[in-house]
Amino acid sequence: MPNPIxxxxxxHTFIGQFHILEGVNVSIPEGSITxxxxxxxxxxxxxxxxxxxxxxxxxxxIVFQGDTLAGxxxxxxxxxxxxxxxxxxxxxxxxxVRENLKIAERNRGDYERHTDLIFDLFPDLKRLIxxxxxxxxxxxxxxxxxxxxxxxxxxxxxxxxPSEGLAPVIIEQLMAAIRRLSSQCxxxxxxxxxxxxxxxxDHFAIIDDGRSPVSGSMADLVNDSALIQRYLGVA
Length: 235
Hints:
The protein is of the alpha/beta class. Helix content is 35%, strand content 27%. Strand 1 (4-15) and strand 2 (18-29) form a beta hairpin. The protein is globular and about 45 Å long. It starts with a strand and ends with a helix. The mean pLDDT is 94.
């Protein structure tokens, strides 16, 4: 297995008085796609938010390329080279596609340097470059949300529920783009669609009731129907 680009070690995260993550451990191999799997409310999104420092853990360590992330603000975490695509897309609906992309610059010229990559992955966005984000379809908004994370130089992308609410044909397009994108950077994905996750990811970690009981190769998980049924309820 390749060296980990990110290691999450025994993190405990609270939201108010609620103990959401109770000792999550995840290792993300560099140059791979890793997916967090689990039932709704298990703590997958909170794991991503903990990594970004949006919902910082109270204890445990998170190490990205040798840098400890604990105590760092989200903008500092982002500057280290971690892009975050939250669930529900969170694009600026009043701004054009171009403005949504430009506003994601970390350094002057980021947008211009990455337009070839972005429009090669998502040709629809080039065609719709002057359209307000709120006028895009759900699938196009998801493409824009991912494209924004490609504007700066990121080594790791955290993508939360990219297929949520999308038609199967759009999911296939997104899968193809994410698969191609994995040659450029490491990807950590939260995904409820097990069929999509099993076809896309190299590695998995299951989050169950705020813990991480099982992780490993996606190929091994696909062949373990008992494990899938136990933790995911998928036949």
